[in-house]
């Protein structure tokens, strides 16, 4: 059927993605014909899987090589390039996204591990016309310079404030029996996995404290 034909990945798509040692094909969820195509592809390739994710509120069905990271699935499969590839070793935090509300280094997490999960990238945080309060605070306090780490910083910062609200302790929490108090030390510790090579740390801290203050 013509509807099946146009849903198949083109030879060019397979070559380009395969050359990068990853194989990610993103198809919209819904139509029976689309599911049929994906399932047929998965059944013929035991090293690949069909993964369903909800990304920024939109259901996505992916056919991925089992070795593909969540980062590559987002960037290569769904073209959500706001999430940045930095060190690719989980050391810089540029690839931070939120999975089920918790921050995750997407470069260290395989896409197949997240079947059924809800993923939020910087594209789902806000838009240029309607900034999230954290994005607005980063602009207000000049919490970015080159901007490369900023998507990961903002995703991490939003999750950090939720962690504190949920009374989740960190390595610098003094009294584990008392409610966690928001403090510069708590924020610095929790944000320590996000590296800013421009050194905008003090401005980032100001931005996070600004948002935290407006929520209290």
Strand order of the largest sheet: 1-3-2-6-4-5
Which parts are unreliable, with pLDDT below 50 for 5 consecutive residues or more?
Answer: 15-22
Largest sheet: 6 strands, mixed
Radius of gyration: 19 Å
Number of strands: 6
What is the mean pLDDT? 87
Q: SSE order, as H and E?
A: HHEHEEHEEEHHHH
Provide an overview of this structure.
With 216 residues, the protein is an alpha+beta fold. It is built from 8 helices and 6 strands, in the order ααβαββαβββαααα. It has a 6-stranded mixed β-sheet, with helices on both faces. β4 and β5 form a beta hairpin. α5 packs across α8. The longest helix has 16 residues. The chain is globular. The protein starts with a helix and ends with a helix. About 4% of the residues have low confidence.
């Amino acid at each position: 059927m013509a509807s099946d034909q146009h849903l198949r990945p083109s030879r060019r798509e397979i070559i380009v993605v395969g050359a990068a040692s990853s194989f990610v094909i993103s198809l919209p969820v819904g139509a029976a014909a689309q599911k049929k195509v994906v399932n047929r592809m998965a059944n013929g390739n035991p090293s690949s899987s069909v993964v369903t994710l909800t990304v920024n509120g939109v259901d996505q069905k992916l056919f991925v090589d089992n070795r593909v990271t969540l980062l590559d699935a987002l960037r290569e499969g769904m073209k959500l390039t706001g999430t940045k590839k930095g060190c690719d070793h989980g050391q810089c935090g540029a690839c931070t996204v939120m999975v089920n509300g918790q921050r995750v280094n997407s470069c260290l997490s395989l896409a197949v591990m997240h079947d059924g999960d809800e993923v939020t990238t910087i594209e789902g945080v806000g838009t240029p016309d309607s900034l999230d309060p954290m994005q607005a605070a980063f602009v207000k306090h000049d919490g970015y310079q080159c901007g490369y780490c900023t998507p990961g910083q903002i995703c991490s910062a939003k999750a950090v404030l939720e962690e504190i609200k949920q009374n989740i302790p960190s390595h610098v929490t003094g009294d584990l029996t008392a409610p966690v108090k928001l403090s510069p030390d708590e924020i610095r510790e929790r944000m320590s996995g996000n590296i800013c090579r421009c050194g905008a740390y003090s401005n980032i801290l100001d931005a996070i404290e600004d948002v935290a203050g407006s929520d209290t």
